[in-house]
Amino acid sequence: MMSIFVEVGWDSTRGQPLDQFVFDCGSGVAANYGAMNIGPGRMDKIFLTHLHADHMSDLVHIYCFGPPADRKSPLWVWGPGRSGVPNPDYPDKSSTQYYEDGTNDFCQHLRELCRWHSESMSFETTAYTAYTAPTNWTLPQPVQPVGGEPTNDGYSIIPMELDWDQGQSGDQVAYHNPDTGVTISFFPVIHTRKGSIGYKLEWGGLTMIFSGDTKPEQNCLNQAINRPPNDPNAPGRGVDVFIHEMVPAPQIWAMKSNNLPSLPDENSPGVKSMVTVQNSSHTPQGAFGYLLSQISPRPRLTVATHFPVADDTVESALASVKAHCKVYRGNQRPAGAADAARLTWSFDRMVITVSKDRIVEQKGVADPFGYSANYQAPPGTGLDGSGFLTPKYWCTDPATGTPVGDPYAQIDTSTEINPCGTDGCHYAVDGY
């Protein structure tokens, strides 16, 4: 269930990072983000590597509950364009059917899917008056929200579809913000169906790569070597953090997936199934080691993701990696290299802090009884409700004569048990 939250720099006047992003958002990650005090207002730019559920399903939660919380502005969603894979079951063999399976299509249908939710929550304010739409970002396509909402509304989704087939060179820009100095580019990878992509983020002389899910392939390798664009003969600059998927050997994968006490037979159906999935979609641990052996200079920190971390699985995988790339010794730093060529495995709430002189790995400590992230008021608004636009479902406050959200606009109260009735008071309106 993959997701990575990235923040860069710090704006002391706002008390927030200069820029921030979410890469993928599989099921359950919103709970971890809330526990780590990352609220919806900080998750307004989502970059999807592909449209598998374990990489996008919590987008429903992030989208739906963002506007009632502190994201009173559009949700931006980057992701791959249509796969272009023909439907082999199309009955008319004289022609070809292609599914509408790109990010624009996904966002359009997500908006329709969540209509009941978004309307039901729109007795609360979902936009603010001081919102300014960005005009100087470099983007891959025109800004065109889906669903018909105003472009300043929290329930507006703005898809940014990436032409994965044009990203071979690795210099295709998905996002560039001159105000914050962040550039995010993309490149195609190989995973189950045409259209899966990886991302490279660059800021302040630091670089991060996230492969998403992929078989071992050349584009990730080239991106990790990180030569200057359009100069194939230049020496590589390397990357600071190289986040790449790795899966265990099919026997181990089948054993863990089926809770078996020992390795199953290589010819068993479960192992054969894992081999098929691996061949379609993923990087086995030996191939991961070979890939690292081809990268020079080495990434300062390599992070294996999408891997079932346990003592036995890591020991097996590290042996395979070291057989191909002996410079890596788990988290142990090679002699004479204070902070180079480290390899680690990802886990929930892992925190990696990167600067030019060092990289620190930590574990985020979260309140086990935490409720939600702190509310961060959008610029130009106040906790007293000032600076917000009138909700979609509103009425006139009889005391002030001003428009306010109407919680009764969409419900039938004929069967409601009122706090006070003809037979006495039943409960207190203050909630206690």
UniProtKB/TrEMBL annotation:
Per the UniProt record, the source organism is Candidatus Thiodictyon syntrophicum
What keywords sit in the KW lines? Hydrolase
Domain Metallo-beta-lactamase residues, every copy: 21-61
Gene Ontology MF: a single term: 3'-tRNA processing endoribonuclease activity
Q: Which InterPro entries match?
A: Metallo-B-lactamas, RibonucZ/Hydroxyglut_hydro
Coiled coil ranges (UniProt) are none
Q: Which domain of life is it from?
A: Bacteria
**Pfam families given in the database record:** Lactamase_B (PF00753)
Task: Write the protein's name.
Answer: MBL fold metallo-hydrolase
